[in-house]
Amino acid sequence: MDTYHVTSITTPGYDGEVPNSFWLNSSDTLLVLLPGLGYTNQMPLMFYLRELGVTRGWDLLEIDYDYRRVPRETTSEQWTARFVADVEPIIRAAVARGGYGKLVLAGKSIGTSVMTSILSHGIEAATAYIWLTPLLRNPHVYETVKTHHPSIAVFGDADYAVQGVDLAPLVQAGVKMAIAPGADHGMMIPGNVPESIANIARAVQELDVWLEQNVVAIGENE
After folding, report:
1. Which is it for strands 20-24 and 5-7: parallel, antiparallel or unpaired?
2. pTM of the predicted model, to two decimals?
3. Least CB-packed of 18, 46, 63, 146 within 10 Å?
4. CB–CB of 175/152 below 8 Å?
């Protein structure tokens, strides 16, 4: 990390400025990390995904919104407006500053709703999309995952957010599935810490290979 210069981007946001960390390393690739509701960018999946970017020398943008105090009665339209106001200007400013050839968007849980919102409101198409424990029971998220390529979805088969969801159309559309046996929405197996850690390790390994094939390899033979 010694080669990185860390700064932040200041934009108004929905209720004020949204904290973020912009890690600059003069790379042509930017990895954007969009955390969950209580699952921050410092928690395992997000932390190790960031480290996969670091090992490749990519620039990184961690957006650290905190939506835990948003009222329960907030409508889906209000959520979308909040996501777009908070996140889209930060990404646009980062992309404009870095002049990137490749953009990778990665969201965890509510972060997949953030991705869906900004992609439907004009953010530039990304090079690749990472959906960590995606909210696939939300039809808008489901369709966005299905129609944006290349995509990888990482989740446990005990995750409430995928229960009852028909995954076959996503697989047929080319979405890579990395499914952890017994893992819940936090990618944990209750009562089994060693296997929980093993599931996260396997997920990170799959992400590593997928990034190499779908981001790093792009343009190498051009």
Report:
1. antiparallel
2. 0.95
3. 146
4. yes
